[in-house]
Write a structure and sequence with these properties.
With 213 residues, the protein is mainly β. The chain is 11% helix and 38% strand. The protein folds into 3 domains: 95 residues, Translation factors (Elongation Factor Tu (Ef-tu), domain 3), CATH 2.40.30; 67 residues, 2-Layer Sandwich (Double Stranded RNA Binding Domain); 49 residues, no CATH class. It has 4 helices and 12 strands.
Length: 213
């Protein structure tokens, strides 16, 4: 159980380590998240805090949500997320409190959660890395097809979960055990070594690694 900080993906660049190694990093803008609500076992059946991130114009905020933000004395936010915590951890936070990028430290292992880029309807070669059939010896019209999907006389149906063409991407992805290469607390930036899910300006959440290598 850990806090999932709401961030915005700015893009990728390169930085140099202290040892002179050049590494690729993803830059995330982690503007301060505000605690909007505390949930407890007694009142809600579980322990968690609700965070709000990425500012939103008040005129574009529905009235019910505006009341929710006003109650917490927080400016309207575009993204709301809950982080499950223990009862003791929930007690350590107050409504209206800001959680900043200094929650993490350089060298720490983290998990990044985001929505992958949507690739539309894709075939089995692109979607599942199927091999392309040989373009010789009589093969025709089906160089990129998946082949037979039948299962014989028994069970006499297409097996559930079979790899077939379909919608690719646009799904929740968690990339685990990434390294925090650098923290820029002054500009609310966090540099993650490697790639993270999602498109430029996409919303991602970052948390302490659940299970490190």
């Amino acid at each position: 159980m850990a806090i999932e900080l709401i961030c915005r993906k700015l893009g990728m660049t390169q930085v140099f380590t202290d040892g002179g190694e050049r590494i690729s990093v993803t830059v995330l803008e982690a503007a301060p998240n505000s605690v909007l609500q505390k949930k407890t076992e007694k009142t809600d059946g579980y322990n968690a805090i609700q965070l709000g991130g990425l500012d939103r114009r008040p005129k574009n905020t529905p009235k019910p949500l505006r009341g929710h933000f006003d109650k917490a004395k927080v400016a309207p936010k575009r993204v709301l997320r809950e982080s499950r915590l223990s009862a003791e951890e929930v007690e350590g936070y107050e409504v209206g409190q800001e959680i900043k990028v200094d929650l993490f430290s350089q060298g720490q292992r983290v998990d990044v959660i985001g929505t992958s880029k949507g690739r539309g309807f894709a075939g089995v070669v692109k979607r599942h890395n199927f091999a392309i059939k040989k373009r010789t010896h009589g093969t025709h019209e089906s160089f990129r097809h998946g082949g037979s999907i039948g299962a014989g006389a028994y069970p006499g149906k297409v097996i559930k979960g079979l790899k077939m063409p379909g919608q690719m991407g646009q799904e929740r992805i968690t990339t685990r055990n990434l390294e925090v290469a650098k923290i820029d607390a002054e500009n609310n930036l966090i540099f993650i070594r490697g790639a993270v899910p999602g498109h430029k300006n996409g919303v991602v959440c970052i948390r302490s690694a659940v299970a490190s290598h």
